[in-house]
Amino acid sequence: MIKLVATDLDGTLLNCNRELSDTNKRTIKKLIDSNIIVCFATGRPLGGIKKFLEQCNLTEIESYSITNTGACVYQNKGYEILRAKYLNSEDYHLIESYTNGINIQVAGYSDYDLYSFEKVINPALNHDSKILSMPITETDIYEITNPIGRLNIMGDKENIDQAISCIPEAVLENYYTVRNETFSFELLNKKSGKGKAIKFLMKYLGLQRDEVLVLGDNFNDIDMLKEAGISVAMGQAHEDVKKVCTMITDTNDDDGFTKAIDEIIYNKLQE
Predict the structure, then answer these.
(1) Whether the model pTM is above 0.85
(2) What is the DSSP secondary-structure string of 255-267?
(3) Residue where a domain terminates, one of 140, 161, 189
């Protein structure tokens, strides 16, 4: 019996306009009414998902969020932090030292801030700021007010490729890295990642793999999908994502989230 549903947001629960459909909203309520725990597991910082948590009334009940690509795990009621794996100024200076002189920006993402440590803000960071509805804070790395969950190398694809090639493999191995978008390469604490975060949450809740359902669509979802007893890839997901899943549903624009939940959970309950 499924007791926890963990879902990615962009490309999974949200449609291509980055909106939560009424259909998916009703399905979240249906899960809540069935006493199934809901977890949003996203690359977004907490500040970029609060409106969706509130739309689904998840801040009033037992529910959870995995944010910043697994850097943090929250209980949504009161936004109590349960697990956090951060980076620090040394990490920033190390990455910046290898990429200095390349037309990219190394930006910092906390759960409440998008930090720019440079005078010129890369268009890719402005793009994220708009999507997340989070302002950019221009500051010095030593003057940040909230800890950094991830560093993003941001810019054009060719420049990011060049930047990555300049960082020694031995250095990259000390971080959890993922590239969901051509314009952004993420570096996180080695103990971060959605897979480690969902594994922590399962242990915290005392759940077994066969009691957990996970849905996702992109590269940063793969580790998390592997941890679940039932894993669902969206119809438009990358082939590498589909390969690790037990089921493929419809696309995010056609409410694939709801269709998967109805087939896996509620059809079985009616049998």
Answers:
(1) yes
(2) THHHHHHIIIIIH
(3) 189
